[in-house]
Amino acid sequence: MTEFSNTFEGCYNPFEALAGLLEKEKARVSKAIGSRGKFVPVDLGKKRPLKIGFATGDGIGPIVAKAARTILENLLSDEIAKGDIIVVEIPDLTIDKRIALDVVAPPTSIEVIDQCDVILKMPLETPDSSKYPNVPSANVWMRQYMDLFACVRHIKNDEVGIDFTVFRCNFGTPYQDAKSAGVMELHGQDEYALCFWPQARIDIERLTHLACLHAKKTNNDFVVLNFKDNVIRPDAAGLNWAKAYIDEHFPEIDYLGVKPDDFSYTLTQPEKIKAMKGEKTGGTFKLTSMVCNNIVGDMAGDEAGMYVGGIGGVGSANVSFSQGMFEAGGGTGIRMIKENRGHFASPVAVVKATGELQAFIGYTNHQKSILKALDALTAAHLVPNGGRNGVTCEQATEFLLKELSN
């Protein structure tokens, strides 16, 4: 290792950068370990006043933001009028401002984020690292900054009979900025792509706890553990930690370990999703809860999006036991903006995220109303699809508001 590290003498040394990253990661994990044994979700439905931060985002973000905010404030109008719930805009959290200041998030944004219990965020652009190497993903940063260890994506399709939730670990695996990972030169030529692949036990335990609570809530004592444990050592550790946690804290719950490539194939066969064999008892179960690491969860959630009309129809909840950030599963649609098709963007994912937020703060009835309105939108063939059907985001929003008022 020393000989190889010396190769980078006099230029950027990735090993020094990774050593610094490891020290930061150890500090984060040490703090998180303090929560072990205290995995109790906070009931935000009882917190008053409760503050919701709103970020309009980049690309199609400001367009779909109108749908999300209008529906949010419409359903919470009484609480907002009384001051029990306060909606505040998070300023300057845009790609232009971040690049201009060369920061992941401007101080003005952080000041407001620090005051919020939950956040509803439109898509934020992650710039091309070859052009903007010092501006990492604000999406990833917000999850880390707020210690939102779980990304939760609900996949439901009544037609094929599937209804399951992906619990993705927001920490660990190679989500890093260009300062700690990237392509390195050797003898004047790009020769190595290097990243640090950490996985902390406490993050897997917290995530598994949430998934088990969800399994019990859905009256199904079964959890799928999706890890690439046959190739990636941190995944093997993650799988073992998840099993050990379930055995100790949820002994009544069975589980099944699957590989991400196998599960991708299984996704094309709904009948297999509805009948999976547990490892502890060998019983047959229906999948309702799945635990994944960061990268695997990203792929599984996006692939499963095909059952809800594509990635533009998936809402994401990034949560801890006391805070949450809710966003669309898709991106900023920069190409749509360049092609002047932004007004044809679908608001479905951000509206679903709005429903997830409402359920998180105690308004499950509002989430049910939102999902019912979205079903009606689909039945009426009014889901915008980038211009192919001519339906605009504004038209879809008007339809949803009308359904919600009934």
Key traits:
Isopropylmalate Dehydrogenase, alpha/beta, 406 residues, ten-stranded mixed beta sheet, globular
SSE order and pairing:
Elements: H1 2-6, H2 14-33, E1 50-55, H3 61-75, H4 77-82, E2 85-89, H5 95-101, H6 107-113, E3 118-121, H7 138-145, E4 150-157, E5 162-169, E6 182-186, E7 189-194, H8 201-217, E8 222-226, H9 233-249, E9 254-258, H10 260-266, H11 270-273, E10 276-277, E11 284-285, E12 289-292, H12 294-304, E13 315-319, E14 324-328, H13 334-338, H14 348-360, H15 364-379, H16 393-405
Parallel strand pairs: 1-2, 1-3, 3-14, 5-12, 8-9, 8-12
Antiparallel strand pairs: 4-5, 4-13, 6-7, 10-11, 13-14
Describe this structure in words.
By secondary structure, this protein is α/β, with parallel strands linked by helices. It has a domain at 35-147 and 320-406: Isopropylmalate Dehydrogenase (3-Layer(aba) Sandwich), CATH 3.40.718. 42% of the residues lie in helices and 17% in strands. The protein has 16 helices and 14 strands. Strands 2-1-3-14-13-4-5-12-8-9 form a ten-stranded mixed β-sheet, with helices on both faces. A hairpin with a 4-residue loop joins strand 4 and strand 5 (162-169). The radius of gyration is 22 Å and the shape is globular. The protein starts with a helix and ends with a helix.
Short description:
The chain has 406 residues and is an alpha/beta fold. The chain has helices spanning 2-6, 14-33, 61-75, 77-82, 95-101, 107-113, 138-145, 201-217, 233-249, 260-266, 270-273, 294-304, 334-338, 348-360, 364-379, 393-405, and strands spanning 50-55, 85-89, 118-121, 150-157, 162-169, 182-186, 189-194, 222-226, 254-258, 276-277, 284-285, 289-292, 315-319, 324-328.
